[in-house]
Design brief:
Blueprint lengths: L2 E8 L3 E10 L2 E11 L10 H17 L6 E6 L5 E7 L4 H15 L7 E9 L12 E9 H13 L3 E7 H9 L9 E6 L4 E7 L2 E8 L3 H12 L3 H11 L9 H27 L7 E5 L8 H9 L2 E4 L6 E2 L3 H10 L4 H8 L2
The chain binds adenosine-5'-triphosphate and magnesium ion.
The site of adenosine-5'-triphosphate (ATP) has 23 residues, from helix 5 and helix 6.
């Protein structure tokens, strides 16, 4: 049975949509595209801003000729609480109680105001039950007000949400297809306002963290330093980025201190993980998000973190229709990682 679903990623700078068709031959790309998020609207609660987001989403849907209104909606890490919890091996019933306790400790708002869910990502086998091996559980909580806000947008956009999912889960789905066999990987999603981290070990999420800085901070620094308008600063950032030999390294010099703050947070995340999982070392980094296209970013990160760094290709598991389209998609790969993963979910 052929069935189509949209993945919808509402970022602070861009709204991204991907439509995938489920066929007996696998997933087929039906449509994709992005549109600028109305300024300041992505986090706003006001009805007018919600309507603006819905209108922009409708406009994009029309432009790219989507054929369904069934959608999997991405929830930014900044509006959800996610955590990988490690516990002694226990039964499902015990786990339920433990998770409720965990939720009370960890969520800063009353439990009646959130929906939470969890999934066991690693349960040691019976043989290792007596050892120190722990089970790990991926825990997510979303404030009811957040869900209501997204439901309002969906209603105005005449979309039918079939699921909500945190962006990191979508990324893991679209970017680490090798599952169990792949080396432990740090996925970094560098967007406009935020940078999200997620370590995937043996196909499972083992660590998550969200950093409140991203590509916009780099543009702002350029605008401030050189007295540019933001649009011009964006252009300079996109042209020269972290390249040392361009424009006498002037742009690199300006953005490096801001970028290094993000790198420092990534280092801290890696260190935290390493301390808690001394036998599991992260072997590579996969980059995605719009800022993954920053010139020189791959070399810079590889040097700073001493790890192999690759650009993520979420289209890997998707059939593209024509070689021309495949070539075009390559250029946009990092931007659509979340939306592809969302559309793949159903
Ligand atoms: N070629 C490029 N070089 C450098 N940066 C780029 C390039 N193209 C896009 N960007 C940056 O990517 C960011 C937008 O990426 P993306 O769409 O992933 O963010 P978002 O999802 O809207 O934001 P967030 O996830 O933080 O809410 C902007 O800061 C933009 O300047
Ligand atoms: Mg984003």
């Amino acid at each position: 049975m052929a069935d189509n679903f949209l993945g919808l990623d509402i970022g602070s700078n861009n709204i991204k949509i991907v439509e995938l068709k489920r066929t007996s031959n696998g997933l087929l790309l039906q449509a994709y595209g992005s549109i600028e998020t109305p300024k300041g609207a992505s986090k706003s609660e006001s009805q007018a801003d919600l309507e603006e987001i819905a209108t922009a989403t409708r406009k994009l849907m029309k432009e790219i000729h989507v054929t369904t209104n069934k959608v999997v909606v991405g929830l930014p890490e900044s509006v959800v609480f996610t955590r990988v919890v490690e516990l002694p091996v226990m039964s499902d019933q015990e786990l339920k109680t433990a998770m409720r306790w965990e939720a009370e400790q960890f969520i800063p708002i009353p439990l009646k105001d959130v929906k939470y869910d969890y999934e066991v990502v690693k349960r040691p086998t019976k043989e290792s039950k007596d050892s120190k091996d722990k089970m790990s559980v991926f825990f997510v909580a979303v404030p009811n007000t957040t869900i209501e806000r997204y439901l309002k947008i969906m209603k105005v956009a005449a979309l039918e949400p079939v699921a909500f999912e945190t962006e990191l889960l979508a990324l893991v789905r679209s970017l680490s297809p090798e599952g169990n066999a792949s080396p432990s990987t740090l996925i970094i999603n560098i967007g406009a306002e935020t940078t999200d981290l997620c370590i995937v070990s043996k196909g499972n999420i083992a660590f998550t963290r969200s950093i409140s800085s991203g590509g916009n901070a780099l543009s702002k620094a350029i605008a401030q330093e050189l007295g540019f308008e933001m649009t011009q600063a964006e252009e300079y950032k996109k042209s020269y980025g972290l390249l040392e030999n361009e424009l006498e390294g002037k742009i690199q010099e300006i953005i490096k201190p801001i970028f290094d703050v993000i790198v420092g947070e990534v280092e801290r995340g890696l260190l935290f993980y390493q301390t808690h999982h001394p036998t599991d070392s992260v072997k590579r980094i996969i980059l995605c998000g719009g800022t993954a296209k920053l010139p020189g970013i791959v070399m810079y990160l590889a040097g700073a973190l001493d790890l192999e760094v690759q650009l993520g290709d979420p289209w890997n598991n998707v059939k593209k229709g024509s070689p021309d389209l495949a070539k075009k998609l390559e250029e946009h790969a990092p931007l659509y990682a979340v939306a592809v993963g969302l559309a793949m979910r159903v």
